[in-house]
Amino acid sequence: MEADPAGGDICTRFLLPDAPGLMTLALATRGNSNGMIDIDQHVQVLPGGLEVLIGPPNSDAALSLDREVVALSQLISISTNDIDLIIDCGRISPALQSQMAILERADIAIMVSPLDARVVPHAEKMIARINSVRSHWQGEPPVKVVMSGNGGAKPKELAEALGIELIGSIPVDYQGAAVACGHPGNNAAFAKSHLIRASVTIASEVTHNLAMIDRSIMPDDKNTNPMPSDHPMPSDQEKDSSNMPAEMRSA
């Protein structure tokens, strides 16, 4: 599911229509009275079989879905017990209630950070934002990290500096990344690429972490406010994330 407020990339990368997708799902849930949603009618299928909920490619349209996705996050947590849903939240901003609602209900939150010690101050701020909305996950590490690229720092050392658990590293793999983004390539070579090997390791770690989570501590949607009243409103400086490294994302 693409929930990036800057707009989605999947439909342009794979030459797909922008509907059905997240927009049609949001429209279908307006006035929903039975508390359930049927995601199947709104997914598209990528080459290889991956089902995706495409977000609007236009950033204005993506931002307009902010309140819709807040409501969706409550229904999705009820309606997706039998599927694995990976949500790309893009760059985190406390001003966007949709991101806060998603992060609050997600079984696991993963931040992807460039392997560069210079991002530590930015990463610490983002971790604090995520932790603030995941405080109900008592006893569970609130956020994990995946390191990306080839930087001067070592992944484990950087994760220790941030005080969070490292669940994997994504190497620089231009050929593998190109195929993953829809460019032609050899499927057999792609399956053996550095990107896929690293992704398999990360997927295994995520699966292990999910198996250890006590879901009895999930928030009660009826009493949950995506932006708690005691949560400080973001300052103008916090709202402006233009100086945040583009690679630093959370899902």
What's the helix and strand layout?
Layout: H1 10-13, H2 22-29, E1 44-45, E2 51-52, H3 59-64, H4 66-79, H5 97-105, E3 110-114, H6 120-133, E4 144-148, H7 155-162, E5 165-170, H8 174-180, H9 187-191, H10 194-212, H11 236-239, E6 249-250
Task: Explain this structure.
The chain is of the alpha/beta class and 251 residues long. The chain has 2 domains: 1-88, no CATH class; 89-251, no CATH class. It is 39% helix and 9% strand. A 4-stranded mixed sheet has the order 5-4-3-6. The chain has a two-stranded antiparallel ribbon with strand order 1-2. Helix 6 (120-133) links the parallel strand 3 (110-114) and strand 4 (144-148). Helix 4 (66-79) runs parallel beside helix 5 (97-105). Residues 221-251 have low confidence and may be disordered.
What is the H/E order? HHEEHHHEHEHEHHHHE
List the strand order in the largest sheet: 5-4-3-6
Structural class: alpha/beta
In DSSP terms (H or I, runs of 4 or more residues), the helix count works out at: 11
Concise structural overview:
This protein has 251 residues and is an alpha/beta fold. It contains eleven helices and six strands. The strands form two sheets. A four-stranded mixed beta sheet has the order 5-4-3-6.
Name some characteristics of this structure.
251 residues, alpha/beta, 2 domains, four-stranded mixed beta sheet, two-stranded antiparallel ribbon
